[in-house]
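User: Hey, quick favor. My workstation is busy. Could you predict this chain's structure for me?
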Amino acid sequence: MGKIEDKKKQKKEALLVSAMQLFTEKGIAETSISEIAKNAKMAKGTFYLYYKDKYEIRDHLVARKANEIFENAHHCLREKLQKVTEKNVEDCIIYLVENIIDQFKESPVLLKFIAKNLSWGVFSNIRIRDLDNRNCMDVFDELLQYSDKRYRQKELMIYMIVELLNATCYNVILYHMPVEIERLKDDLILAIQNILKQFECSEVEQLESA
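Assistant: No problem, here it is.
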């Protein structure tokens, strides 16, 4: 059974590698299941043993690549937090954002693929492997524990930050429009700080929730 499972994993991985290559080279709409299977050196029927259509394999790839980016950013954040005594939630989120921007700058192709296909449902359920498969929202909940402030509608708050980052980075990094990324950063960070402030509970709200 071990060898059979290993072969299944190898075939599934080969399909993922093939799909990623074709999706980034040709685009999802222009890529067929037959091409994905052929590029992976498999029969078309083998594809359907693992995925129902190319959109399912797309979602799997988006989740995997987004997980890798977020995992790398969180790993760097944990290293940073070990070196400081005071932990500020705003600084933590800004650090994550800047790290993710740097990763996108290094791989514009990856940004193009993720930004066009990353839905909130996929993002909010990403599992972080080095954190016992906890999801992204668990990570943000943990960061919010560092703050003496309280926030309302935390999921909506994170959603707005993620969508802002996703949308603004796309044209700026890929096409340098309307400005270069370094010129965007300060205003993007200010916008994120304003979102955090917008969702910050008032003293009355904090007392009522206590």
